[in-house]
Protein 1
Amino acid sequence: MHATAFRYRPPVNPVAAATVEIGKVVVSVRLSFHGDLYACRRPPGVVERVEAEALDLLSKGLFVSGIDTPLATVTGTAGHRFVQETAVFQPTDRWVYRGTCGVGASRNGLTLTGMLGYRLEVRAGWARRAGECGPPATAAEWCEFFGAQLASIGGVVLRRASVLSPGTPP
């Protein structure tokens, strides 16, 4: 049986994202990957279509919890293994978590394998109804202003966010 095999590089843009408003706070979560995966499709298919299928498989069932802590947890139904390496506060409105993600997923004849780097960005800011509140200047202020709302969220389901090149089927 023939197959289409190639290196798959996820888009530079976020692969999955979500925005949640709770009380007077708006939280935005964005996940992006960097690196290459090995992709194999049996039976063979058009590479552009296989790339769309790969993006669907990579972004399937992504869930983020612990966004109020220095150790955010990322999971995915495709069986990705996320290992966080760093968490850095970027004034005035975001934490950026970085790490590695082991991928070994298959669906409908498509198999993705390899190791990617990931970047998880969690932004928090005041919603319009919060009025004229100043932005936090430090990580401690950010946690003081937004920590309770972030903790009450529990977790966020991310949805596929990347746009493929024009003409590529979703």
Protein 2
Amino acid sequence: MDTTPEQISARTAAAWTVALAILGGFTGWAWDGPFLAVTCALSLAGGGAVGTVLSRRRIMAAVQEDQGKAAALGYADGIADMVVLGISAYRAVVFPLSGPDAVDVAERRARRRAAYRLTAAEGLPHQIREAAAAALEAIDDGGDRRTQSAIEDLMKAVREQRHRA
């Protein structure tokens, strides 16, 4: 079963039209018999169909606008999470738990390049970009306590961005 907003809207419109036709039929039958039942059923169903056709364009425009906003927010949330992950991976190679010589220089450069590329990604909110730049600067300067504080600030910015939406 297709569950796109267009199909759901079409099925809802059809259901309302049928419901109005049945209501009109029963009302017409109760008032004056079969002729008025058919007349009321057709007029209510026709009015319902015209109403759904006229309102459908506006409803679909609103749905598409909301889908666009949701997609943009989802992309921003996803790229923000990737920035945190990339910067954390870079931090892990700069300050390895097994000692300063545990990670070779090529790995360090590759992780640094990946972290900087993620920070420069399009669609990343400005607050997260600033916090990520501060975290990268702290890592590059080599201060472990300052780095920890900067990464906590970055994660706080990501949480705030997610709750703002």
Protein 3
Amino acid sequence: MGTFEAHGGAKKDFDFNVGLVEGDWDAKRFGDRLWADVARILEVSFEDSPGEPGDAGSHRYWFENDSISVSLYVDDGEPGWVFEKVPAMLTARSRSESVETWQLAEKLYDRLVAIGSYLVVVFADDGMPIDANFDIGDDW
């Protein structure tokens, strides 16, 4: 059983928080890059779903078709150890009969981490961390 499967089930979501391994933070540039990487990983085109500016420099992205729905919200993050490091919030849900949401989330996590330029933490819908590619501590 995969790490994500144990947290799967009907109507169960996985919330990703994503940030930069290194470099200067620019919410729009980061959001555009992450959005393009997510599209490649999920093998869909987000060309008709560019980011839209939100409040205080934030950016929102949204895509859905018959197979998936994906949303991304990027801002400057919240104070606090984990969330200031991973300020982008990404959610992907399977709408397919053949792919479970946990499978989609596991694929997305594995491939984002493999890129090597993202810090990634994934939370189950109850708020418990499932996996992270950096030390988030034991305060959960």
